[in-house]
Amino acid sequence: MQGTRTTNQQVERKCLRTSLWILTCALLALSALFLPVTRSAADDSPIVSTTTAEGRLAVFDDAWETIEERYYDPGFHGIDWQAKRIAYRPAAARANTAHEFYEVLRQMIGSLRDAHTRVYSPEEKFDWWSPRFITTGLTIREVDGVPVVVAIEPQSAAAQQDIHLGDVIVSVDRIPVTDFINQRLKNSNSSEGLTRSRVIATLLEGSAGSSVELRWQVRDGKIKSAPLQRYWGQRQLGFTNERKGKLAVLRLDAFTQSVALDFSKMLPDTLRGADSIVLDLRGNGGGDAEAMADIASLFLNDGTNLGRFADRSGASFELQTFSKRIWRIPLLSQIKLPLVVLTSESTSSAAEILVSALQTAKRARVIGVNTCGCVLAIRNRHTLPDGGVLDVSEFDYRTANGVRLEGLGIRPDEMVSITRRDLYSRRDAALEVAKRYLNRH
């Protein structure tokens, strides 16, 4: 019996390592589920062109049928998936450009209200570990009830303007921002899965090379304006660490085998002399489930149940901590130091599983805001006939206690929201609360 259990566990872990990825991107423009195993065009039927109606329909039908066959919920959340095909297929045939065609596909897929099931045109092919995305250099989020600049890309054209963290967006292409948001919400007809926060985060989206006329309000109330060009940006995902006295602050962007190994290797030196840890997952969009389990094994007991995944057929398996892999590193053992985890609305997928496990085991105090509620998984990516890529959620997830996190997320033990005042003063309120908590414990 012991041999059978061990074999099953090894098979499950191998399946997990090669087939199951659960991640959404921390950057809103990238908020989707990715698997870095993409079939080449040679593996599929000959590539077709979306410059013709026939080609567009071939790609459309392939995308619709793949979702029909693979989607984890055969009931499609109560949506009539056949009716969606009938409704959107004529618009796909009429599309004048590849961009317009892919917008039609996204509208149809958006009706599933699933941030993980996403489609990418050939020029948008996505490498999760070195994300490439279209940006103006600004990241916009809703803060204090209004759209606010929360990040500015260094060296970007936006960084050269008189625009600062905390500034409020007033208008986009000369349309008052409130009207712009309401118009997009109205036009979606509740079918694209759009929310106010999603619309605000994508206020400046558009095609690379195009411009957007932006007006914003600075701290003293003055209104500024400038055209900003959209361009392709790129980001490397990994981890950083710093010491603040005896407090070690560890920031993880994503979970990969290499990140988990490098992270674990640096821990003995990083934690030497430390008396507490802050694990910052506010920008973590997930990753390799096994790599996440390796990180969890650093803080939780061996064999801790991290939850169960199930596909549409009912086939399922559990994910557990497994210290033997990660503890091969010299001087590394289970970490017992007091721990705080920081979360945000961008804490997604595998990161949410880790947060939930640490919170449930009372191993860490969670501080920040509610997590994304984006916890589904894919088995592999699908290459479309034109070279585009389709990601389909094939697995649902529930915690060890049977709680479904998709659409729910995790509520922190202590809520700490960002404010415009914090942004202007470059104050990290959540980290300050974490320090105070750890000083008391």
Keywords:
441 residues, alpha+beta, 2-enoyl-CoA Hydratase, Chain A, domain 1, Pdz3 Domain, 2 domains, six-stranded mixed β-sheet, four-stranded antiparallel β-sheet, 12 helices, 31% helix, 22% strand, globular, disordered N terminus
Question: What do you see in this structure?
Answer:
The chain has 441 residues and is of the alpha+beta class. It folds into 2 domains: 327 residues, 2-enoyl-CoA Hydratase, Chain A, domain 1 (Alpha-Beta Complex); 103 residues, Pdz3 Domain (Roll). Helices cover 31% and strands 22% of the residues. It contains 12 helices and 22 strands. The strands form 7 sheets. A 6-stranded mixed beta sheet has the order 11-12-13-17-18-22, sandwiched between helices. Helix 2 runs antiparallel to helix 3, helix 7 packs parallel to helix 8 and helix 8 packs parallel to helix 10. The longest helix is centred in the N-terminal third of the chain and has 18 residues. The chain is globular.
Topology overview:
Layout lengths: L1 H18 L1 E3 L29 H18 L10 H14 L3 H13 L7 E3 L11 E4 L2 E6 L2 E7 L15 E5 L2 E2 H12 L7 H6 L9 E7 L5 E7 L1 E4 L4 E6 L2 E6 L4 H15 L4 E5 L5 E3 H9 L7 E6 L5 E5 L2 H4 L12 E5 L6 H11 L4 E4 L13 E2 L5 E3 L4 E3 L15 E2 L4 H6 L3 H12 L1
Parallel strand pairs: 12-13, 13-17, 17-18, 18-22
Antiparallel strand pairs: 1-14, 2-20, 3-10, 4-5, 6-7, 6-8, 8-9, 11-12, 15-16, 15-21, 19-20
